[in-house]
Predict the 3D structure of the following.
Amino acid sequence: MPGMYRAPKMADSEGRQVASAHPTTERQISKGARRAGLKGMAVHDPTPDERNEEILQYRFRNQILIGLNPVKRIAKEGESLGVNLSWKEGGPLVSSLRHPDEQTMAELMVVMGDLLRPESDLYYERVVEFVRKRVPGQQLEEVLRRFENAVNGINRGGMNLTVDGQALTPREAYLRILTSILEADDTKALEEEQKLAGNPPLRDMLWFSGYSYCLDMHRALFWLSSTLLKQRLLPKEAPRTELCIYCASADGTFTTREHSLPESLGNSHSILPRGWVCDDCQSAFSAIEGEVLKMAPFAVTRILATRYTKEGRFPSGRFSKVHIRKTRPNRLVVEVYGGKRTIIHTDEPNGVSSLKLRGLGGRFDHVKVARMLIKGALGAIALERGRKEVLASKYDVARRFALHGKPFAGRLVLPAETGPPQRIMRIKWWDDLPAALINIHGVEMLVSLNPHELPDLPDGFEHRAKVFELDQPVECVNQERDASGPSAGGGEQPGGEVSS
Ligand SMILES: [Zn+2]
């Protein structure tokens, strides 16, 4: 019944706070802390602003490291960049671009876009200003002066093209390729490429100029980032208690930051600060997530909905009868090895083509999927409400399940069918109902956080849903029920405010 669906208190993985926090009762905190042997331990969290600053620095450095992968691949395998010019007496001057592997070149240009485009929240000029504000001083100014000189040289140097009476600096050539070819929608990209195909020397020079800019800027940013780190010119880490929200222990080492939902699924923003997840838990979850990401629904979603992987490659996947790969963010190649019935293609109104794929094969392990989702939900709750909230005893069962797979009487509900992927990553939960609703690229999944009935299902689940019991063996239960079935059985019926 949609009317019974309460608006959950929401937090989403982009860190936006959507609803006000409810106070957590002290009773819950002390109970959780006692169980963990941490009674009386004060948990000190950095403020949201301090966390955001820390995560910004982390993402900036991480993005440069993602870019280092294609740079290394180019250095190792690729031909170096250049332009060949040839001329025979009496004939025209003929040019051709000598470039590294085209896909690797495009991969680097797309990854670097997140640092080089002014709209990006990782835009390097913004990050530089942030550091300048937070760590003022002569030493920093000297480093930034050298960096800015290098950047000016990169943008002034090289080749300056004039197109339609307009001068294009290397930076402008790069942004033009990025926005009108690599990241444009596929129809526009094709138009632009056809336009350039009529003028090969211009096309070659444009790519040459844009790509050199990108490579030079990566070198400059890598130098800047490493120098700031080496000379300790980054804002100091805010003080915090090292206490893991998953094993509820303060004993381990805490060297890493952890994504609530996997980075490989396209979660770039929802990141737990250092000190919140111990290294042991981090590596345990990394193994579970690695397995889940190989399962067909997640593997396909990852390819369709993400632009590049942590290795700075366009995403791809090999399934039993189908290979799928992106050769650009707007270009998908599907290779079928399983005969005609593997891929069913229909043209729908509005120029939309729909593909149905069979033969993806592989095993679906609902327990591992639920463990990954619960881990993500607990992480999101901690980010929104602080660690004390998530260390409360009401989440102990979920914590043990996520970490050790210890069964409990909860459920995972998945939609039986999904539409085309959307760019969404969101985790919502109810304050007084033990469940979380997780939306990964348009696929909404509901999972219990406590051994109770699930609440009424949201709109998307009304018709058909697959329900998995979390205390059943690993094998797929795959019951199909009327979606109102599992929720109508006398569970807590929520009162209060109604749907969003
Ligand atoms: Zn831990």
